[in-house]
Design a protein that fits this description.
The chain has 259 residues and is α+β, with helices and mostly antiparallel strands. It has six helices and twelve strands. Helix 3 runs antiparallel to helix 5. It binds biotinyl-5-AMP (BT5).
């Protein structure tokens, strides 16, 4: 199933969305779906346009890190034009859509590791990257990038850290990337529309976090914070309680969970 026949029609046919994934651009191979999505957004692509690649040669993680996406993975980017108020919760939209689609297609339970990882059995199965261009108070565009390890035997890819897993490794069988993509797009739209119609997805996102209540170490640039991950705010920040009782609000960074 490695190639498993992704095509624009197979993704879009009878897709139960209004705008997310109604236009899909599919590439067998691409440097990064983020770069292509950015070009499309700058050309005024319709909201909900999706760029999907079977393989990325320069997949992007956060902070100029590399996201390895060989064949068997899902790499896609969704173009949105939200109001500036909806930028912070986009990470909640993406994370929950990934958790939901994994459960719907495989029955596997996953959890979110703040800020942008999705884990199964404490191993990273998916990563999310959100990039936006904002001028003043106006969002030019926002792009949600999602990478999911679907049909990968991680032992074949020593360059991917041992903290990673894939749906096929967890299940012991291959999974339809098409099913995952279609569920993912439906989920992104539903959650995004929930936000836009005044609903909240914060509570569900908070409850899906593996991070809360755990001792953590957060590295943000050159600063390292240590403490207990006490809570998250509605704009997605992490509240960290230190041993001296003080509280720090952290807006991003790399989290290591302590035992
Ligand atoms: C992320 O960054 O986790 C965001 C990944 C987003 C990827 C998607 S794919 C579609 C779209 N197009 C792109 O070019 N990017 C987005 P970060 O938290 O910085 O994690 C990166 C780190 O994860 C790397 O430094 C490795 O340690 C690890 N890593 C790399 N490839 C991996 C993989 N396939 N599975 C699990 N971990 C991986």
């Amino acid at each position: 199933m490695r190639g498993d026949g992704l095509s624009v029609a197979s993704i879009t046919d009878n897709l139960e969305t209004h705008f997310i994934g109604q236009r899909v651009i599919h590439y067998p191979k691409l440097t990064s779906t983020m770069e292509e999505a950015k070009r499309e957004a700058q050309r005024g692509a319709a909201e909900g346009t999706v760029i999907v690649a079977d393989e990325q040669t320069a997949g992007k993680g956060r902070l100029k890190r590399i996201w390895l996406s060989p064949r068997g993975n899902i790499a896609l980017s969704v173009i949105l034009y939200p109001d500036v108020a909806y930028l912070p919760p986009l990470i909640m939209v993406a994370s929950l859509a990934v958790v939901h689609c994994i459960e719907a297609v495989t029955g596997l339970k996953s959890q979110v590791k703040w800020p942008n990882d999705v884990l199964i059995n404490n191993k990273k199965v998916a990563g999310i990257l959100i990039e936006s261009e904002v001028k003043g108070n106006m969002v030019d565009y926002a792009i949600i990038g999602i990478g999911v390890n679907v049909n990968l035997r991680l032992s074949d890819f020593p360059e991917i850290p041992s903290t990673a897993t894939s749906l096929s490794d967890e299940l012991g069988r291959e999974v339809s990337r098409l099913d995952v993509i279609r569920h993912l797009l439906v989920g992104v739209e539903r959650l995004y529309l929930t936000l836009q119609t005044g609903g909240s997805i914060y509570e569900e996102w908070r409850d899906s976090l593996v991070t809360l209540g755990r001792g953590v170490r957060v590295k943000l640039g050159k600063t390292i914070y240590e403490g207990v991950a006490e809570s998250v705010t509605t704009d997605g920040s992490l509240l960290l309680r230190h041993s001296d009782g003080s509280l720090t609000r952290v807006t991003g960074g790399d989290v290591t969970l302590r035992e």
